[in-house]
C-alpha cells in the first residue's frame, strides 16, 4: 500500500540535483559524449537496445549516460521513450540468409560453406587487464575484410535439414502477436515466447540456460551456428506494390542443435533452439536458444520438470524492468502496511504470553 507523503518535494528535487552532479563527476575530466558511448561501449549499448526493444544506438547511449551506466535503468528509460513512438507498419521478416556477416562460427562442423569468421570476440583473449587501457595509447588498426560480401553462407542447420537430420524449419504465414500491445494469455505461441526472451534479462536467461545444461531440462546442445552482421529491414508499401528498405540493423542469430526426437511417423532427428538479438549479444542469444528449446517440451511430449521448461515461470520473471520495479518499490513508503504487521505481531505476542501465564505449573512441567 502506498501512502501520500507531504513536504518531500524539496528533498526529491535536491536528490535529483545531487544525482546529476554525481553523474557528471569530476569537472576536470572531459564529459563522456554520446558518440564515445556508442563507439566504445557498444556491447552495453547493444544490450540496452535489445532489452529495451528499440533499435537506436544514440538513444540507447543517451539512456546509458543518464543512468550512470546502470543498464537496467537505461533499458527502463528506453522502453518508456518507446511507448511515445507511433507504430505505422509491420516490417517483413528479416532475412538473415542475406546478412552482411561480421562474425560467423559453428561448433558442429569445422569446414562449412562460406567458412568461419572469428570477427570481434573475447573468446580467444587472455583475461588479463591491458595496461594501455589506462590511457589513449591503445590505437585500433583498421581491419581489412577478406570475405566477399556476396559469398554464400548457408546455415549449418539448413545443411542438416537437407539430409533430414534436424526438424524442419517451417515458416508461418500468420501475423505474429505483439507482446508490447497484448497481455500474455497462457499457453502462448512460440513467437510470443521468443519476443519475451529477446526482451528478457540476460543474467536471468543465462542462469536458466546454464541450468538446462546441468540436467534441469532436456537439452544436450551444440552451437549449430552463431552469426553477427547487418540485415536490411523492409516494409511493404501498398502505394508502390513492393517492399522498400527503410534501414539496416546489426543482429546476432544463434541456432542451437539439441537432443534428437523421433516418432512412429518419422525417424529420430535433431531439434532446434533459436535466439535473435539486436546488436552483438552472443551470450544472450545462446542462452535464449537454450531456454527456447527447453520451453518446447510440450511439442516433443517431454515432461516439464525443470524451471526452464515452465513457460509461465520463465515469461513472468524474465523481464528485468518488471522485476526491478517490483523489487525496488520496497524502498517506497510502506508505513501503514508495516504498522499493521507490527500491531498484529504485538497482539500475537501478548496472546502467547497470556496463554503461557494461564498454564498451570504441573501442565508446564509435563
UniProtKB/TrEMBL annotation:
Q: Which InterPro entries match?
A: PhnI
Q: Name one GO biological process term.
A: organic phosphonate metabolic process
Instruction: Name the domain of life this protein comes from.
Output: Bacteria
The protein's name is: Alpha-D-ribose 1-methylphosphonate 5-triphosphate synthase subunit PhnI
Q: What is the lineage of its organism?
A: Bacteria, Pseudomonadati, Pseudomonadota, Alphaproteobacteria, Hyphomicrobiales
